[in-house]
Every structure is written in C-alpha cells, then in structure tokens.
Amino acid sequence: MSDGRASFRLSDPRQFLALGFGSGLSPWAPGTAGSLAAIPLILVLARLPLVYYLLVVVLAVALGVWICGTTARAAGVHDHSAIVWDEITGMLIAMIGLPISIATLVIAFLLFRLFDVVKPWPIGWLDRRIGGGWGIMLDDLLAGAAALIGGQALVWLGVPGLI
C-alpha cells in the first residue's frame, strides 16, 4: 500500500491544516513535529481569555474532524502519519488553563506524547473502533485531556517551576 504522501497538496487549505502547516511531512516523528508546531499557536492563544481559548479548541476539533477525514480520503490511508492536526488540537487541550512557561509547555508536551503513543485504555480501545475524521481525532483529544489532567494536577500540587 502506498503511504499516500504523493497525493498531499499543501496548496489545498484543508490539507495544509491537516498536515500541521507542513510539519506532518517531517521524515522523522511527524506526530512529534505536529505537537511542536502547536506551541506557537498555544503561545498566541494563551493571551486570550479562557472562554475564547476554549472556543478555539472547540472550533479546532470540529474543523479537525472534517479536514483530517478529507485528507485521509485523499491520501487513501486512514490515519496517515502526516496528518497531525489531531496532535495540534491535542496539545491545545493539554494546555487549557495552564500557566504559560517553558516548564508547563514541556510537561504538557511530554504527557501528551506519552498518552498519544502508549494509548492506555480507553484511548487505544476507541482508536481501534472508530473510523473517519472522528477516529483520527478522538485518540488525540483523549490524550490531550489526560495530559491536561496530569498537568493541572502537577500545578495543583505545587510542583516547583510550574507555577
């Protein structure tokens, strides 16, 4: 089976977003590259009131279901590794309400990548059972939520450097 990379068109706005502004085309660890591509977006959005940040997250989820689904169909591969909008959205979720610092960005990134790669129950279970755009997005939304809970717990516990 072809990996579908040749069918990607960054000139198509849906694919440009689904491929994380091109970060998903990284030959090494595209999911990690997509997660890192979220950081500038997080730094900009963190300046907004929380309600607007949350609105952007909801829009990113809705948009992501559509753009990831259409890009996967264009590639002919269900959750192609180059599709990283789900990682970007997962990172946005992981940082909800956290204070912005290098430490919180690193913790959120590490926790998100851990949950995204390991896929503990129910993340992995759902990932294997749901297809389409929702199937691409859902595991990363849950990994982002798990990272958010972990990051918030560390801040709540007063871990030095996170406040």
Q: Tell me the major beta sheet.
A: none
| Distance linking N and C termini | 48 Å
* Poorly predicted sequence stretches spanning 5 or more consecutive residues: none
Estimated radius of gyration: 15 Å
How many separate domains make up the residues?
A: 1
Question: Which range does the strand content fall in?
Answer: under 5%
- N-to-C SSE string, H for helix and E for strand: HHHHHHH
Subunit arrangement of the protein:
single chain
Give me the count of strands: 0
Structure classification: mainly alpha
Sum up the overall morphology in one term. globular
Q: Helix fraction?
A: 55-70%
Mean pLDDT score: 92
Alpha plus pi helix count: 7
Verbal overview:
- There is one protein chain.
- The protein has helices spanning 13-18, 30-45, 50-75, 85-94, 102-118, 123-129, 132-156.
- The chain has 163 residues and is an all-alpha fold.
- It has one domain (9-156).
- α6 runs antiparallel to α7 (132-156).
- The mean pLDDT is 92.
